[in-house]
Amino acid sequence: MAKPLGVFKRYEKKYMLTKEQFDMVQKALEGHMLLDSYGLSTICSIYFDTENNDLVRRSVDKPVFKEKLRLRCYGKSVTDDDNVFIELKRKYDGVVYKRRVAVPYSQAREYLLCGGQLPSDSQIGEEIKWFVSFYKPVPAALVCYDRLAYYGIEDGEFRVTFDLNVRCRGDRLTLQDGDDGICIIPQGNAIMEVKTITAMPVWLCDLLSENGIYPTSFSKYGTFYKMQAEKQTADIK
Predict the structure, then answer these.
(1) pLDDT tens, position by position, 96-108
(2) Displacement of CA 195 from its chain's centroid (Å)
(3) What sign results for the dihedral spanned by CA atoms 222, 228, 230, 233?
(4) Alpha-carbon distance values, 215 to 12, 15, 22, 86 (Å)
(5) Fewer Cβ in 10 A, N or C end of the chain?
(6) Using CA atoms, how far apart are residues 142 and 71, in angstroms rounded to an integer?
(7) What is the CATH number of domain 8-236?
(8) pTM of the prediction?
């Protein structure tokens, strides 16, 4: 299994799959890719934004450059002593740059919510500190999903993930209060992400093309934000 890193630079393409397409693609990975040792795992992230939601509103406009900050854990909840990841994710012209530091949840919470000190003096830490100082972000949404992650047999950096049961909420913005929320994709559908350092393998390109599966732009936090905005508009009417 590919080792987790603190710095990522790669191309990422997303695809929205029906239940039938998901089953077909998953079957086709056999012989090319292996499921990582975690199997089906749950990922929970608190997305941070400005008081006016400037980051997500800019993101849904699909700019050439966008960036986001999130606090992520692997599992349905954490304790104060469990390590979590403060992640700074940027995307420029189709290339994703992700930088993150691992800290105990209590320290991450103290830094992001109470203005404490980030226990990291690395370059990544300095970039996170700049982002926080510039945007003054606050918790905006909790996004949770169940993930199946595959890595290439010949190239461990080549990864395909399937995100299922994507659910979000705008209250109880903590990693210690469960993973419930509003489902934002149809039951049985999957968000597939293909993550590569270089080009996608020919066998996968052919598989997707032959079955009419094409890339799409999809943001979990952005989709939830638009759903909430539409609901507020309908309530006003």
Answers:
(1) 899 999 999 999 9
(2) 12
(3) negative
(4) 10, 5, 14, 28
(5) C
(6) 9
(7) 3.20.100.30
(8) 0.91
